[in-house]
Amino acid sequence: MTFSKILTDWYSVNKRQLPWRQTTNPYYIWLSEIILQQTQIKQGLPYYEDFVSVFPTVFDLAHANEAEILKLWQGLGYYSRARNLHFAAKYVVEDLNGVFPTNYKDLLKLKGVGDYTASAIASICYNEVSAVVDGNVYRVLSRYFGIYTPINSSKGAKEFKALAQELIDKKDPATFNQAVMEFGAIQCKPKSPDCTVCPFNSSCFAYGKDEITELPVKIKAAKVSKKYFNFLVFLTPDHTTILEQRQGKGIWQNLYQFPLIESKKALTSKELEQELENLEVLKGKTFDVSLYNKNEIVHKLSHQHLYTQFWIVEVDTNLKGEIPVSKVEDFPVPILIGNFIEDFNF
What we know:
Organism: Formosa undariae
Structural class: alpha+beta
CATH architecture of the largest domain: Orthogonal Bundle
CATH class of the largest domain: Mainly Alpha
Function: Adenine glycosylase active on G-A mispairs. MutY also corrects error-prone DNA synthesis past GO lesions which are due to the oxidatively damaged form of guanine: 7,8-dihydro-8-oxoguanine (8-oxo-dGTP).
Family: Belongs to the Nth/MutY family.
Shape: elongated
Number of domains: 2
Largest sheet: 5 strands, mixed
Protein name: Adenine DNA glycosylase
Cofactor: [4Fe-4S] cluster
Strand content: 5-15%
Helix content: 40-55%
């Protein structure tokens, strides 16, 4: 029995019932794939359902404002995905009259769509023979075939794509692609997979050589940097505060946050007060400062760790640019800020 046949037979018995598997509508498939990038299904599913409910068509998504989309995306992280989603929706509506590209090559023209997403949409919606390669596929193929080429290298990307393209079921590429992804997600898991019930255990290289934990191979990432964030939560007698929109490039682009002071180390109350004396917004005003969280909140991103302190700054008068605290939850914010807002309960 061939690799693809064993895989698709396993999938027919073990696949999970998920809403995007009940359709071939490219809008819903695209939406699910973007949401599930770097996100587990159990986390992404509620977001998918919310997006489909609020934006049932690509026209609804295209005509929404960015703040509304970012607010709905809040908590998923990697916010560039949401901005790209909006950009691509507007492109489909304005340039393509609301009709999604119908092949792999043209799907790649959508902002935020790479090889994996284009292959998924092309195969599932249009039966194009284009193999998907994501983290799950890398893991399955590297273990089964004993491939030590680093998966995060250009050589690895080409090698695994070529192998997947060779293995794909030419008559039913959609089922094969979904099967290999599902197999990696629930059977050939990153840690402690149950190889005793695996349909490939008699021929799997990694299982036979006892090298399950060695594969796939990945080049070590660069050293993670540390940053120290001091968020200023202003409170006035009229129950107002300040939120600022982040400008420029970055993972939190266009999201809102409390005014921020970055420092080279964790600040003491005295050091923070010295910083506040230089702020234009507090010139000529009386204020009291207190640290909300005794221990730093460490927010871990892929390339940096943010050591965060929230400072409550009670001011004796109103402030320029203030908003009612009752409106704070209306703004799209990073999950770090969202967690504080929920905990502080203005």
